[in-house]
Amino acid sequence: MLKHTTYQSIYNNEAIEAGAGSWKSTERMETLQKMFSRRLLFKLLLTAVIILVGCTGMVRVFAGSPHDSIPIEQVVVSKGDTLWEIAVDYKPKDMDTRAYIRIIKKTNHLKTSGIEAGDVLSLPIYE
């Protein structure tokens, strides 16, 4: 194995020792790179937040139910009342009673057609 090498640096040692100024410029470059990356990261994050908020707002605008503008009437169930009788009394004339019962069940979160005296039903009123 060789003990001596023939490698010689292309830089002279005086320039390296006196190169404190180059160290400062390197430090400045690193600082600029960090600031640039922070700015870029901040801009990307801000853009992502704006897009997220914008999309959320759009979803909320279009998420409205078509039943939001339909007036609701509250009816207290009396003894002996059935969902069919209530539907016949409050449904529009041209609507099928079974369809109105489905709407009543959906509006009141009922799984069955069973109702009891004292229950309060929300009935959509169609004109």
How many domains in all? 2
Identify low-pLDDT runs.
Answer: none
CATH topology of the largest domain: Membrane-bound Lytic Murein Transglycosylase D, Chain A
What would CATH call the architecture of the largest domain?
Roll
Which structural class best describes the helix and strand composition? mainly alpha
Organism: Paenibacillus dendrobii
Transmembrane segments: 40-63
Domain LysM: 74-124
Protein name: LysM peptidoglycan-binding domain-containing protein
What can you see in these coordinates?
The chain is mostly helical and 127 residues long. It folds into two domains: 13-62; 72-124, Roll (Membrane-bound Lytic Murein Transglycosylase D, Chain A), CATH 3.10.350. The protein contains four helices and two strands, in the order ααβααβ. The protein has helices at residues 13-17, 20-62, 83-90, 97-107; strands spanning 72-76, 120-124. Strands 1-2 form a two-stranded antiparallel ribbon. The model has no long low-confidence stretch (mean pLDDT 81). The chain crosses the membrane at residues 40-63. Keywords: Membrane, Transmembrane, Transmembrane helix. This is LysM peptidoglycan-binding domain-containing protein. It comes from Paenibacillus dendrobii.
